[in-house]
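Board notes (copied after class):
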Amino acid sequence: MLVHVMYGKSRDEASVKGDMYFAEMPGKNDLVEIDGALCAVLMTWHTPSLFFAGTKAGILVHQEIPSIFADRTLVKEGVEA
């Protein structure tokens, strides 16, 4: 699945990382690996469009892993589009 990835602590202040392919859509509170770094998914959103052939979903990620993720080992790896 092609996903638009933004990096930051909030969507308002986030920078665009780019579009990446994931085997399945990462969900909120998932851990993902991007460019060899482990990141926490803080937010997800759906961007439906009938007229645009690009990404239909987005995620906000950050490298500071909150304590809620301490026991997680599941990592979804993103591949740049």
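Comment from the instructor: Strands lie at 2-7, 15-21, 31-34, 37-46, 57-62, 75-77, 79-80. The chain has a mean pLDDT of 83.
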